[in-house]
Amino acid sequence: MNQSTPRQFRDHTTVRVGGPAGEWILAEDESTAREVLQKHHLPTAAERAAGKDSLLVLGGGSNLVVNDKGFPGTVLQLAFTGISAEPATNTDDDAVTVTMAAGHNWDQAVAWTVERGLTGLEALSGIPGAAGATPVQNVGAYGAEVSQTLLDIRAWDRAEDELVELSNAELEFGYRDSLLKRETINGSPRYVVLSVRFRLTHRAGQALSAPVRYAELARSLGLDPAAQEEQRRAPLAEVRQKVLQLRAGKGMVLDAEDHDTWSTGSFFTNPILPASSLPELPEGAPLFPAGTSAEGEPLVKLSAAWLIDRAGCQKGFGAELTDGRASLSTKHTLAVTNRGQATAADLMTVARAAQQKVQERFNVTLHPEPVLVGCNL
Ligand SMILES: Cc1cc2nc3c(=O)[nH]c(=O)nc-3n(C[C@H](O)[C@H](O)[C@H](O)COP(=O)(O)OP(=O)(O)OC[C@H]3O[C@@H](n4cnc5c(N)ncnc54)[C@H](O)[C@@H]3O)c2cc1C
């Protein structure tokens, strides 16, 4: 266990804001993490909502904004790593089970699978953070989501003080959502993921990707986005490279030299609305089918980036509100970025202004994607 004097969130989050923590524990092995968790039983929902939970679980800090005063409780940073693969039992010959420790860097894990010719995670290349956090918001990009290949997780249940295994179905995944996220308040989860298992595929011969689902990615690989599934596969390594290239062009791959990447990635989720209550949108507005509601009504997903842009908040918006310390990315309207000296309050100022403009122009409420601790819109 490694305890030390106050560390600042600004040094441990990708958006580089946030004050100190009362106590900071870096768990470099699972038993250290479990020791700490045993001492931090889950308070009641009311106590947690009132900010009385004294534990914040941290992975790579890439989906987290902590306020400038910091967090008075204990930060448990999960830093234990490890990855292994074994042939899956009781299933097709070409199925492989890959196990990742919670603190394993996600993009390194994806690279590891691609190098070994394992199909399934390649479109999720370049996403920052740790493997253990990926099921929390059902991480997704370029038509893929972890829920498509995740088998199960091992987690510590702070309500029951026991180790549990939760299957893909039990995690009740949705768009940027899961049981894990719904049971997390202010960065304090009921279930702390210790390891994740994915079911990937290893085919003899050339290692090909899963069918590419995202039109922009398909076209950049020379594939026809409208072709049959089997015609939408490309060599794994090529898909990874192309995804990294497309992401870098949007400031979505971490680069210390590029302030457009000092962010939490997308700041807002794409709104999903019942088809019957869609606002009046200009012709050409991107709309995507998004399944049906519990009542059986068709749902439609809108593009938050498009709404923000058309509400009058173009790339770079918000610099004028914060003396240049924070703004929307100059490459993508969905990222709220730190231009070097931003505070958490500056980020909230920019995000709030974009949210209000979209509300006024389209009557659509945007919801933040990152976890906000001690700050709100
Ligand atoms: C440049 C950039 C690009 C991004 N692109 C994408 C993208 O394409 N798609 C996408 O979905 N996301 C994207 N993100 C968001 C982010 O990278 C992911 O959500 C990532 O999974 C967060 O991992 P983390 O380890 O950094 O989590 P953290 O920020 O450390 O934590 C986030 C939340 O998860 C909880 N948590 C973390 N680890 C665990 C655990 N082991 N058990 C239980 N709870 C835990 C924390 O308590 C917190 O509530 C991007 C972020 C950045 C900065």
Automatic annotation (TrEMBL):
Pfam families per the UniProt record, alphabetical: FAD_binding_4, MurB_C
Substrates-to-products reaction catalysed: UDP-N-acetyl-alpha-D-muramate + NADP(+) = UDP-N-acetyl-3-O-(1-carboxyvinyl)-alpha-D-glucosamine + NADPH + H(+)
Primary location recorded for the protein, binned into one broad class: cytoplasm
Active-site annotation: 176, 266, 369
Assigned EC number: 1.3.1.98
Top-tier EC class: oxidoreductase
GO cellular component: cytosol
Required cofactor names: FAD
GO biological process, alphabetically ordered: cell division; cell wall organization; peptidoglycan biosynthetic process; regulation of cell shape
Keyword GTP-binding among record annotations: no
Organism the protein comes from: Nesterenkonia sedimenti
Matching NCBIfam families: PRK13903.1
Listed GO MF terms: FAD binding; UDP-N-acetylmuramate dehydrogenase activity
Protein location: Cytoplasm
Domain FAD-binding PCMH-type: 17-203
Keywords: Cell cycle, Cell division, Cell shape, Cell wall biogenesis/degradation, Cytoplasm, FAD, Flavoprotein, NADP, Oxidoreductase, Peptidoglycan synthesis
Protein name per UniProt: UDP-N-acetylenolpyruvoylglucosamine reductase
